[in-house]
Automatic annotation (TrEMBL):
It comes from the Bacteria. This is Serine/threonine protein phosphatase. It comes from Fusobacterium nucleatum subsp. polymorphum (Fusobacterium polymorphum). Keywords: Hydrolase. GO terms for molecular function: phosphatase activity. Residues 228-445 form the PPM-type phosphatase domain. The keyword Hydrolase applies. The keyword Lipid biosynthesis does not apply. Gene3D superfamilies: 3.30.450.40, PPM-type phosphatase domain (3.60.40.10). It holds the Pfam family GAF_3.
């Protein structure tokens, strides 16, 4: 009996061991199943990342090969829809002072643009731009289960715009956010490249137009006036930029030589445009009338005044020399006085008349003076580009220096005197940049 009981106890003990072993097997199995599931999930994520990286690489190459911003924006919008959980998208880009909506995809009813003064934009920090983008995102109507993701577009410190993405909250997974961030970086680079390319093309176009304008401006300068009856003449025109606001003109009618020099306020294209208009008007007035220099300025001012803006004006020295009588008559509209050397008494001085610049007062009667030009006398018309020429020490060339140069070289020809003036300007300025147009006309009586 005892033997049977002992065997029964041993059997029960073996059964308990088997149960414990089974439990261990169950735990091991569960662990293996769990690890297998995790491994499958991890593999799935890795496969998705690999696919996304491959797609991202393809989209990047496509976008970077484009230089049309609208096409780039279309490509990026499609990419966000395909590679992320985006259901709606709105893309804004900066165009100067404006934040302009360039693309919407999905049901977004807000597409307004915004303007900010440039002086404010120049002071904006990244935090200021973030606030603008955040305020903009709140204007998009979303459902309770949706969220707007703000993706700023920038390269270094250059703000390009913002992409606003609408997605379901439960789809905002880590891998989704990675793709959104990666696409944002690629989008910024592609858009920045396209903007730089567009700016380069625009600069080239403007440069070509300025070269053409400069060529035209030089072509319309009078030619063939180096020597006429009793006068030795030299002229010079060098704009500070491709085109300038200075001009001079000479014309001969009924044995009267008309000489005009003018300076339009400002520089570059606007000044050159007003210069061309002014030249045409004065030339026409001179051609169709027998007015004196002062009367020509009276009429010119009346014509120009209604159309000239408050921030622009024209200074003019208008003169006429009669080849038969040697009478020289001049009138100034706010222009620099003439430098006149008179050989008879060996004196040099400034001669001008009182008169406001063209465009200041609507009805203004300009004054004029006259004198007989005698053999050896010299007259220099000039614009303020000479006397206001600066050197590296910010000192001005000045009127007295011009007077001294003319007096010291009074016995030279007009062409030689021109060379001396240019040489003095060059030596004075040295390597300092020319900041204003330099224009002058020299008349020397050689009877």
């Amino acid at each position: 009996m005892e033997k049977i009981i002992k065997q029964e106890n041993e059997l029960n003990s073996s059964i308990d061991e088997i149960k414990e072993y089974r439990k261990e097997l169950d735990v091991t199995y569960s662990t293996l199943v769990s690890k297998s599931t995790q491994l499958e999930y991890t593999n799935s994520l890795l496969e998705k990342r690999v696919r996304n990286l491959s797609n991202l690489n393809h989209i990047s190459r496509v976008a970077l090969s484009m230089f049309n911003i609208d096409k780039i924006v279309d490509t990026l919008a499609d990419a966000y829809f395909v590679l992320t959980a985006t259901t709606r998208i709105s893309i804004y880009l900066w165009e100067g002072e404006k934040l302009v909506n360039k693309k919407i995809k999905g049901s977004i009813d807000f597409t307004e643009s915004f303007s900010y003064p440039m002086y404010l934009l120049e002071k904006f920090t990244n935090e200021d731009y973030s606030k603008i983008y955040s305020d903009l995102s709140r204007k998009i109507t979303i459902l309770n289960d949706e969220k707007v993701i703000i993706t700023p577009l920038k390269v270094k410190e250059r703000q390009l715009g913002v992409i606003l993405l609408v997605q379901n909250k439960d789809q905002l997974l880590e891998i989704n956010n990675e793709m959104i961030s990666a696409l944002g970086i690629q989008a910024s680079i592609a858009i920045d490249n396209a903007m730089n390319y567009a700016e380069l093309l625009e600069k080239e176009r403007i440069s070509q137009e300025l070269e053409l304008a400069s060529s035209i401006q030089k072509q319309i300068l009078p030619k063939g006036f180096e020597r006429i009856k009793g006068l030795d003449i030299a002229t010079h025109f060098s704009p500070a930029k491709e085109v300038g606001g200075d001009y001079y003109d000479l014309s001969l009618k009924n044995n009267n030589l008309s000489v005009t020099i003018a300076d339009v306020s400002g520089k570059g294209v606007p000044a050159a445009f007003l210069m061309a208009l002014s030249r045409s008007m004065l030339k026409t007035i001179n051609y169709v009338s027998n007015y004196t220099p002062a009367e020509e300025l009276d009429l010119f001012n009346k014509i120009v005044y209604p159309d000239i803006t408050e921030d622009m004006f024209i200074t003019v020295m208008n003169a006429e020399y009669n080849l038969d009588t040697s009478l020289f008559t001049y009138s100034s509209a706010g222009h620099n006085p003439l430098v006149i050397y008179k050989k008879e008494n060996d004196t040099i001085d400034l001669y001008g008349t009182k008169g406001v610049a063209i465009g200041f007062i609507e009805n203004y009667n300009y004054k004029e003076n006259s004198f007989e030009l005698k053999n050896g006398d010299i007259i220099v018309f000039y614009t303020d580009g000479i006397i206001e020429c600066e050197n590296k020490n910010r000192k001005l060339f000045g009127t007295q220096r011009l007077l001294d140069i003319v007096y010291r070289n009074k016995n030279l020809s007009a062409k030689e005197l021109k060379g001396k003036i240019l040489e003095a300007i060059k030596n004075f300025r040295e390597d300092y940049e020319q900041t204003d147009d330099i224009t002058f006309v020299i008349l020397k009586s050689v009877k």
